[in-house]
From TrEMBL:
Domain ARID: 181-285
Keywords: Metal-binding, Zinc, Zinc-finger
InterPro entries assigned to the protein according to its UniProt record, in alphabetical order: ARID4, ARID_dom, ARID_dom_sf, Znf_FYVE_PHD, Znf_PHD, Znf_RING/FYVE/PHD
UniProt cross-references to PROSITE patterns, sorted A to Z: ARID
Protein name (Swiss-Prot/TrEMBL): AT-rich interactive domain-containing protein 4
UniProt GO MF annotations: DNA binding; zinc ion binding
Database matches in SMART domains: ARID, PHD
Organism from which the protein derives: Zea mays (Maize)
Keyword Zinc-finger annotated: yes
Length: 354
């Protein structure tokens, strides 16, 4: 039967979800388990119990509805999802609750409801696709295993993880995350106020910050903060159109996913930037002066931005053979320019074996 353990609210709320026939036996104190049924653990996992700053709630083999209810009741800062506990104890299995297999990313991510946790730990093998689905939902930090792993490895990692959560390191992490969120909110408030002052009332929704911007990209609200940061970092909107909007900008935004299949995203980002951010950029001194990495001047010209190091160059200063035209690099979904230094580093032949 699913069980939820409750204690007083502390600084960090953790919801742990265990599954498999042997998960409940692992949670049973040895003093309460008959000798004939007591599970002898070769790889003892640290006990999931509230202590100090940590408030733990545990679900064992829940139904989908019970998991949703627990999220709403607990509002976890940290969500820990463990795969099936195998009888032989040699490895951790996939995520299965009762008769429900949660290996499908779309089904899995539909269970995660707001308010979202700050961090999720997926103790399941090959959890990359599940992690990507969580990122696409807007969860900033996901810890996962790329490959298969043993119970021995998992037990040691959980020991380390629990130690971090109960230490001042976790406090520092929460402070940094909260500071970043406040910084993003301050930026959006500043942009909203600027748009109102310029008379662009239609761009600011009546709901204020909670609904700003009223633009959706890849099923998520447009990430104005990273859109502005990445464009300004590369010299601003009018830097000769030498920005690869899809490869260099979109990939740094929260709207991006590894499995993204959107077409025309570069042109879409340029339109959104012109609508929300271009006037703001021109009215603020956020752009550092750039110089060409080849001729070391800031003269006008056809500027291109290296997709690896982020440095700028005049395309005309790059005399290498086989380069494409400026038009090819400046398209919103165009080719990626790689500077001479990065090309040498990337394609440097390996040293011969002694």
């Amino acid at each position: 039967m699913p069980q939820i353990q409750n204690t007083m609210r502390q600084n960090c709320t953790l919801l742990a979800v265990l599954c498999g026939e042997f998960a409940e036996k692992r949670q049973t104190p040895a003093s309460l388990a008959p000798d004939t049924k007591r599970l002898r653990l070769s790889y003892p996992f640290p006990e999931l119990a509230s202590s100090g700053r940590l408030e733990v709630h545990t679900l064992i083999n829940p139904t989908l509805e019970q998991f949703r209810e627990a999220q709403q009741a607990v509002h976890p800062v940290f969500l820990y999802l463990q795969g099936q506990q195998q009888e032989n104890e040699e490895e951790i299995g996939t995520l299965v609750w009762g008769d429900t297999d949660l290996s499908d990313p779309q089904m899995f991510v539909s269970l995660i409801t707001p308010p979202f946790p700050t961090m999720v730990y997926l103790e399941v093998p090959t959890g990359e696709k599940l992690a990507q689905s969580l990122h696409s939902k807007g969860i900033p930090y996901v810890v996962y295993w790329r490959n298969l792993f043993s119970s021995y490895t998992a037990s040691h990692f959980r020991h380390a993880l629990m130690s971090v959560i109960q230490s001042h390191t976790w406090d520092a992490f929460q402070l940094a995350h909260a500071s970043f969120r406040l910084y993003c909110e301050d930026f959006l408030k500043d942009v909203m106020q600027f748009l109102l002052q310029r008379g662009h009332i239609r761009l600011v929704p009546q709901g204020g910050l909670a609904e700003f911007p009223d633009a959706v990209l890849n099923s998520k609200r447009l990430d104005l903060y990273n859109l502005y940061k990445e464009v300004v970092y590369r010299g601003g909107f009018y830097v000769g159109n030498g920005i690869n909007w899809k490869g260099q900008i979109f990939s740094k935004m929260h709207n991006h996913t590894v499995t993204n299949k959107m077409t025309g995203v570069g042109n879409t980002l340029k339109r959104h930037y012109e609508t929300y951010l271009l006037e703001y950029e021109l009215a603020h001194d956020d752009i550092d002066g750039e110089c060409c990495l080849i001729c070391h001047s800031g003269a006008l010209g056809d500027w291109v931005n290296c997709g690896l190091c982020g440095e700028w160059a005049h395309l005309g200063c790059d005399r290498r053979k086989g380069l494409s035209t400026f038009k090819d690099y400046s398209k919103a979904d165009g080719m990626e320019y790689i500077c001479p230094q990065c090309s040498l580093a990337k394609y440097k032949p390996p040293l011969p074996a002694p």
